[in-house]
Write a structure and sequence with these properties.
Layout lengths: L2 H11 L6 E6 L8 H6 L12 H10 L3 H21 L2 H23 L13 H7 L1 H4 L5 E6 L2 E6 L8 H4 L1 E7 L3 E4 L10 E6 L4 E6 L5 H7 L7
Antiparallel strand pairs: 1-2, 1-7, 2-3, 3-4, 5-6, 6-7
Length: 226
């Protein structure tokens, strides 16, 4: 089954007709001001720690780290060799790609998209972010785009394996309250998707792969009003 087909099956399991769905993560949530923290009731700002099974898996992976590092070095060396042996046209294509990547990274920083949200704790995005790990202590969310808005699903508690088996709806955002946005409208290949709220505030989520099902879906939608 294709990746897109699998995500649709997950949506059906939740009883939701989704136009697109993708597992996403968010960056580290910054510490809010003391008054914001107190008003919110001192919510948690980190996912739950790995369960014992996950910790065992991490320990078992340690002996393989040198091998992974070696494979990474070999891969980087192979890429360097390919670049050195590339034809003139291929080198030009790689040069253009490198310039696009630099321009993309510069725009991300310029627009503040290297942050997890717009920085306004009083905005809708900031208030929603305060409750992020109160909804679920899992480190990922299945973000579903529906005709009526956005649905977020996750296991209530962090799990090491079986996220699909344990997931349930943890938050709903109607279309009148928030929409999903590709900030670059497909011009660049990124993992970034924004949940943009009606007050203009936004929250960044990162898909597991670039050009995800969500990005493809958003390319088919009319551009949002600024």
């Amino acid at each position: 089954m294709s990746r897109r087909g699998k995500q649709r099956v997950l949506a059906d399991r939740l009883g939701i007709h989704a136009e697109a769905a993708e597992w996403c993560t968010i960056d580290k949530i910054p510490q809010p001001p003391a008054e914001v923290l107190q008003a919110a009731g001192h919510p948690r700002f980190r996912p739950a720690r790995l369960r014992p099974l996950g910790m065992v898996g991490a320990v078992l992976a340690v002996p393989f780290m040198p091998v992974l590092m070696l494979l990474t070095l070999l891969s980087n060396g192979e890429e360097a060799i390919k670049r050195s042996l590339a034809t003139k046209d291929e080198k030009e294509r790689l040069r253009v790609k490198d310039e696009d990547d630099k321009r993309r990274d510069a725009l991300i920083a310029q627009q503040g998209l290297d942050q997890v949200f717009d920085g306004n704790w009083d905005g809708n995005a900031g208030q929603f972010l305060l409750r992020w790990y109160s909804h679920s202590t899992h480190h990922q969310r299945l973000v579903l785009a529906t005709e009526d808005g956005i649905v977020l699903a996750a296991p209530p508690q962090r799990v090491t394996v079986g996220r699909e088996k344990h997931m349930q709806v943890v938050a709903r955002l109607p279309a009148t309250e928030a929409i999903l946005v590709d900030p670059f409208s497909g011009a660049f290949e990124t993992r970034i998707v924004l949940i943009r709220f009606r007050d203009g505030s936004w929250l960044r989520v990162d898909t597991e792969e670039p050009r995800s099902d969500l990005h493809t879906y958003l390319l088919r939608q009319p551009l949002p009003d600024n």
